[in-house]
């Protein structure tokens, strides 16, 4: 899809519209190439008074997943689309200038309780296992990559799972967990993958939006056939994988 329109200088690459109401920001150097996402409500409801009339959800319910690079162009982009109600940090490496984002956007910062201490001076809403946003939309604790690693799910478009660095595309564009030298707890990460495998169905999961390594998608906006991709992860084989660099 086309990049979203922005009145910015040529030096700032605009966010990319990956689905009608979901935007991906360019990789953020401050989060080691992490990709942040904006999820705007796309629920269109029939008005009870007008029958055929339509209304959309309140734009103040926008959700920002991880931190884009800090600049005024991206702040204006977010504010032009109704601002941000929640900024959720999916893992310890997904935060960059969170305090500045919170002050600029006046948003609620959501983080899993084990990583809240990494954001001193920031007002945070901690959660243990699950945190709900809009109806059907939630963050789910998936520890392993880091102690407080989490995925974010939205039911739009047949179900979209934002995996942070819990699941990333490999060189073949397949969604997999990666065992790195900085991986907090590999067996726990695989248990988190197993939890996701049992949490969804073909009807509730269609897309995965990874939080990094999007170059391996080779131009694709999302990892499609997400349920099949998730089920294809060979947990038994991965248990024998040595730590990588």
Describe the structure.
By secondary structure, the chain is of the alpha+beta class. It has a single domain (16-238), classed as Metallo-beta-lactamase, Chain A. 17% of the residues lie in helices and 24% in strands. It has helices spanning 72-80, 98-105, 186-199, 226-231, 235-238; strands at residues 16-19, 22-24, 37-39, 44-46, 54-56, 63-65, 86-89, 108-112, 124-127, 130-132, 138-141, 150-154, 160-164, 168-169, 175-176, 207-210, 223-224. The strands form four sheets. Strands 1-2-3-6-7-8-9 form a seven-stranded mixed β-sheet, with no helix packed on it. It is globular and about 45 Å long. The protein starts with 15 loop residues before the first strand and ends in a 7-residue tail after the last helix. Residues 5-9 and 43-57 have low confidence and may be disordered.
- Please give the number of β-strands: 17
Mean pLDDT: 88
In CATH, the architecture is 4-Layer Sandwich
The coarse overall form would be globular
**CATH uppermost class:** Alpha Beta
What is the terminal-to-terminal distance? 34 Å
Sketch the major β-sheet: 7 strands, mixed
Order of helices and strands: EEEEEEHEHEEEEEEEEHEEHH
Label the structural class.
Answer: alpha+beta
Uncertain runs: 5-9, 43-57
CATH H level, superfamily name: Ribonuclease Z/Hydroxyacylglutathione hydrolase-like
Task: Could you tell me the CATH topology label.
Answer: Metallo-beta-lactamase, Chain A
Strand order of the largest sheet: 1-2-3-6-7-8-9
């Amino acid at each position: 899809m086309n990049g979203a329109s922005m009145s910015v200088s040529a030096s700032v690459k605009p966010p990319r519209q990956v689905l009608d109401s979901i935007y991906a920001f360019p990789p953020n150097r401050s989060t080691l190439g992490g990709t942040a996402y904006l999820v705007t409500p796309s629920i269109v409801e029939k008005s009870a008074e007008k029958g055929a009339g339509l209304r959309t959800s309140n734009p103040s319910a926008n959700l920002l997943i991880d931190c884009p690079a800090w600049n005024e162009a991206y702040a204006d982009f977010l504010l032009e689309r109704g601002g941000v109600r929640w900024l959720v940090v999916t893992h310890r490496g997904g935060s960059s200038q969170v305090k500045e984002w919170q002050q600029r956007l006046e948003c609620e910062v959501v983080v899993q309780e084990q990583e809240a201490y990494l954001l001193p001076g920031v007002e945070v809403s901690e959660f243990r296992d699950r945190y709900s946003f809009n109806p059907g939309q939630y963050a789910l604790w998936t520890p392993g990559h880091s102690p407080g690693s989490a995925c974010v799910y939205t039911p739009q478009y047949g179900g979209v799972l934002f995996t942070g660095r819990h699941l990333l595309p490999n060189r073949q564009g397949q969604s997999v967990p990666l065992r790195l030298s900085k991986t907090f707890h590999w067996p726990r990460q695989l248990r988190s993958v197993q939890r996701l495998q049992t949490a969804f169905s073909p009807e509730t999961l269609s897309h995965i939006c990874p939080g990094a390594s999007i170059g391996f998608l080779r131009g694709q906006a999302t990892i499609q056939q997400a349920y099949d991709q998730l089920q294809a992860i060979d947990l038994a084989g991965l248990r024998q994988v040595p730590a990588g660099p």
